[in-house]
Amino acid sequence: MDTFDPSAQHLRIESKIVAALERISEAFRVLLWQEGKQHGLTPIQIQLLLFLRFHAPALCKVNYLAKEFNVTKATISESIRILTKKGFIFKETDPADTRSFTIHLTDIGKEMVSRTSAFATAIDKPVQGLTQFQKEQLFQSLLEIIKKLNKAGVVTVQRMCFSCRFYHRGPENDYCSLLKKTLHKPDLRVDCPEHELVAP
Q1: Torsion of CA 47, 51, 54, 59, to 10 degrees
Q2: 65: closest CA among 28, 117, 104?
């Protein structure tokens, strides 16, 4: 079986879905490169700035960032060095452990995020054109794929409802014991700031 062999691909809908996801992934890579070239940044540097802008300081450490982006700590450290030199970020040393530090955006870094964060609009627009039913079906399917990839160790970090200790699956709708509310399928989150990993 060769997912990327057009002469065989049409025989399996699974192969077509994987090929379609690869095309979308390629679109993200192209958009990131185009955005990066305009500002003298690499795709990983843009992704780091975006992550730092919208996530808690506890997650903005080298070890966690390396897991988040599936790269080595050396790659993250090099990007941090360059972004610090450009004035986009600064490091705050942990008083309890001088070898550990948290990374924060400077005001210039926040401005850069505002300029670069719109790169995904090109993909957002066609999604907006789907019907509500199509959006919900697609969203649910993607959540299931991410969940299974995480279990297989391919997606190393995820903060979805499915892996959270506050999440409870129901026969029709699910429930969040932190928010104390019923979760309809569109309410499920891909990246929840209150996420706490369920105990093994």
Answers
A1: 180
A2: 104
Count of beta carbons in the 10 Å neighbourhood of residue 112: 24
What are 19-73's pLDDT values in tens digits? 999 999 999 999 999 999 999 999 999 999 999 999 999 999 999 999 999 999 9
3-state secondary structure of 2: coil
**Residue 130 exposure: Cα atoms within 13 Å on the Cβ side:** 12
User: How far is the C-alpha of 22 from the C-alpha of 32, rounded, in Å?
Assistant: 15
Q: Are 175 and 168 in contact (CB under 8 A)?
A: yes
Q: What is the model's pTM?
A: 0.85
* Inter-residue contact 83 to 109 (CB < 8 Å): yes
The tokens of 1 are what? 């079986």
